[in-house]
Every structure is written in structure tokens, then in C-alpha cells.
Specification:
Layout lengths: L2 H7 L40 H13 L4 E5 L2 H9 L7 E5 L4 H10 L6 E5 L4 H7 L4 E7 L11 H8 L3 E5 L4 H4 L9 E5 L13 E5 L2 H14 L5 H11 L2 H21 L3 E5 L9 H7 L6 E6 L3 H10 L4 E2 L9 E3 L11 H6 L6 E5 L5 H12 L1
Helix pairs in contact: 1-2, 2-9, 3-4, 5-6, 10-14
Bound molecules: pyridoxal-5'-phosphate.
Pyridoxal-5'-phosphate (PLP) binds next to helix 3 and helix 4.
């Protein structure tokens, strides 16, 4: 089955009880047993729910994997993956990272005795040298949020040999990037973003083809219990059916926006992997089959100008999050990445002048006109 077919058919069999063509929302916490322990594979909805299972099957198939665990949010999925480690274990983490992931690692799991080294993972030799006897996992975000830096998944996975390699694939989505094929062991998504795709549901998923790792994550899912309810699972599943269509338009519009901004006299720098000026454009072409819908840039002038610009746009709403059909703009330093200390932000190029666009799938002429008039 090819990608678009899997998005529509994987896990989406007609309902065995009623023949309903679309997977029903199984709004139930429990299941009646014929006799003690005799049931149809479901006994309690934290452990398993048919609507959630359909979503897990669908999303695992999109990453060419057998196993998926859905969660109530992206950070809950991340917590479950990190939760397979033990106190004293060490994790190497790509340093330009979603702010909430940084907060979870540093301020929650750091207190439980896990150790994190944040580093520039574009330098694979340095990554190899950072491996200690206690190192158990590599955590990669690529492209990164918000600087759109790439990490070479294949090279890092080779350097990691028997360590667990986890990739946050939220920005690229499986439509444009398949980390498991490049040697990663587990993929995490905030399904809140492109997979859900309509800014109407929060969720996450961890996907792997490794049975043991799946069992360990599944144990976390059931033990810590950060599961999505059936309504949220259903909305996410519905969104994911159109992922291919949406990603094609997101990427087409983002490329046009990035090229427009790069050519504009008021724009200082544009960060988009699809631009020839992107320092890792060649890696992007090798590792991804498209460049996604996220564009970051800096304007000439000070941060007040950047904030003023963000307020003048008509179609780009000033909002956190990304990946919905509608265009959004955000000021990472004050919004999504506020939990990262300022010196740390600046070291990564995440200045107070940086703006991040989630380019939606509106008509591109309207989007460009909106940007042009706000710049003018
Ligand atoms: C939003 C996001 C997350 C966290 O997901 P939530 O659904 O908000 O918990 C993790 N990684 C990336 C790259 C994100 O953009």
C-alpha cells in the first residue's frame, strides 16, 4: 500500500459489530466480559480502546512500522519514550529543540536522575565523542523548531550503533521523512500539528518497529496513563486521512513564501530547507522528500519591528502551535521558546528578532499579498 492509501485504509476496517464504514467513537471506559478474562481483547480503555487502536494502526503504517502508542499530547508521547530509561542513564539531545521538550527533559526528568547533554548534532564526530558508558539514547529533532536546522539521521544512527535513536518527526511528518528507514528506532509526533492538521485537537504518538521497545513504551502508556480519549483519537484519525494532500500544499506555499521573503529588501535572513541558500539544502534533498510548511526569518530592524509586523498580518494569526490548514505567525522567544533561558536561545540563533511562520494551505496569492502589505 502506498502512503495516501494507508492514510485512508490502515486500521480503518468496517466496524465488526455494526458494519459502520467509518471507525466509531467508542465512548466507553470498560467492556462487558463473557466470563472472567473472556473478552474481545478490550477490558479497560486506559489499556486499549478500539478507536484509539485504529488511530495507532493508521499512524504506525504511515511510518512503515508495526507498532504505535497514542497519547494525550506530544509531550506525553515524549515522556513515555524517555520513561523507558532509568535513573543515571544519559541522553544526547539535539540542541535546537521544541521548548516543551527541553523543559520536560531539564526540569522534570533531570530531577529524577536522568542526564541530558544538549549539543549541535550536525557535528557527528562530536556526537560520537559525547557517548559515555551510561548513554542510552539519542534524541533528534529534525528539522528543528524554530531554526529549521537538519540533523543527518542516518549518520547519527550509525554513530549511535546500539543506542536507542528517537526522532521527533513533527515538522517533516512521515509524508516527507521516514526516520525508521534511516536507522532510527522510534519516532515521536505531536499529532496536534500536521497529523491532526486542523488546530482542533491535542495529541501525540510514539511509533516503532522494534517489538521490545514497543512493549516498554506500551507499559509506560498503560502505567502512567497519558492516553487520548476516543473523541480526540477519532479527530486525529480523521485529520490524518488527508495528510498527503495537505502536506503537498503546505510545502508548495512555504517554498513560495520563503522565496518571496528572501528576495524582499526588508528581510534579513530566511530559514527554510527548500531554499538553495539553506546551508543543509543538499542533506534536506537526501533525507526528505519535501521541505515542509515551516519558515522562520528575521526582519531588518529591532525586535519591536518584528512584533509590530506580526500584529499587522490579516491571514497569519498570531498564535502558538503549527501545522493546521490556517497560517500562523509566532514570536518564538516570547511564545513557544520562552522557557529556554535567553543566553541559551541566543547561542542557537533564536534571537528576539526571529519570527516563525506556519504556512497554511490558503491561496498563495492571498498569503503573499498579506506579507507584502505588512512589510510595506
Ligand atoms: C508541539 C510540539 C511538541 C509537543 O507536542 P504537544 O502536542 O504540544 O504536547 C513536540 N515537538 C515538536 C516539534 C512540537 O512542535
Amino acid at each position: 500500500m502506498k502512503f495516501s492509501t494507508k492514510a485512508i485504509h490502515a486500521g480503518q476496517d468496517a466496524d465488526p459489530a455494526t458494519g459502520a464504514t467509518i471507525v466509531p467513537i467508542y465512548q466507553t471506559s470498560t467492556y462487558t466480559q463473557e466470563a472472567v478474562g473472556v473478552h474481545k481483547g478490550f477490558d479497560y480503555s486506559r489499556t486499549a480502546n478500539p478507536t484509539r487502536r485504529a488511530l495507532e494502526t493508521q499512524l504506525a503504517a504511515l511510518e512503515n512500522a508495526r507498532f504505535g502508542c497514542a497519547f494525550a499530547s506530544g509531550v506525553a508521547a515524549t515522556a513515555a519514550v524517555i520513561g523507558v530509561l532509568s535513573s543515571g542513564d544519559h541522553v544526547i539531545v539535539s540542541d535546537d529543540l521544541y521548548g516543551g521538550t527541553y523543559r520536560l527533559f531539564s526540569n522534570v526528568f533531570g530531577r529524577y536522575g536522568l542526564q541530558f547533554t544538549y549539543m549541535d548534532m550536525t557535528d557527528v564526530d562530536a556526537v560520537r565523542k559525547a557517548i559515555r558508558p551510561s548513554t542510552k539514547m539519542m534524541w533528534i529533532e529534525t528539522p528543528t523548531n524554530p531554526m529549521l536546522t537538519l540533523v543527518d539521521i542516518k549518520a547519527v544512527a550509525e554513530a549511535a550503533s546500539d543506542l536507542i535513536v528517537a526522532v521527533d518527526n513533527t515538522f517533516a511528518t512521515p509524508y516527507f521523512q521516514l526516520p525508521l528507514e534511516l536507522g532510527a528506532d522510534v519516532v515521536v509526533h505531536s499529532t496536534t500539528k500536521y497529523i491532526g492538521g486542523h488546530s482542533d485537537v491535542v495529541g501525540g504518538v510514539a511509533i516503532t518497529d522494534d517489538k521490545d521497545l514497543y512493549e516498554a513504551i506500551k507499559f509506560q502508556q498503560n502505567s502512567a496513563g497519558g492516553v487520548p480519549g476516543p473523541n480526540d483519537a477519532w479527530l486525529t484519525m480523521r485529520g490524518a486521512k488527508t495528510l498527503a494532500l495537505r502536506m503537498r500544499d503546505h510545502a508548495k506555499n512555504a517554498q513560495a513564501v520563503a522565496e518571496f521573503l528572501e528576495a524582499h529588501s526588508q528581510v534579513d535572513r530566511v530559514y527554510y530547507p527548500g531554499l538553495r541558500s539553506h546551508p543543509q539544502h543538499e542533506l534536506a534533498k537526501r533525507q526528505m522528500s519535501g521541505f515542509g510548511g515551516m519558515v522562520s526569518f528575521t526582519l531588518k530592524g529591532d525586535d519591536a519591528r518584528a512584533l509590530g509586523f506580526a500584529n499587522q498580518l490579516k491571514y497569519f494569526s498570531l498564535a502558538e502551535s503549527l501545522g493546521g490548514v490556517e497560517s500562523l505567525i509566532c514570536h518564538p522567544a516570547r511564545m513557544t521558546h520562552g522557557s529556554i533561558p535567553k543566553e541559551e536561545r541566543e547561542r542557537r540563533g533564536l534571537t528576539d528578532r526571529l519570527l516563525r511562520l506556519s504556512v497554511g494551505i490558503e491561496d498563495i496569492e492571498d498569503l503573499i499579498e498579506d506579507l507584502r502589505s505588512a512589510l510595506g
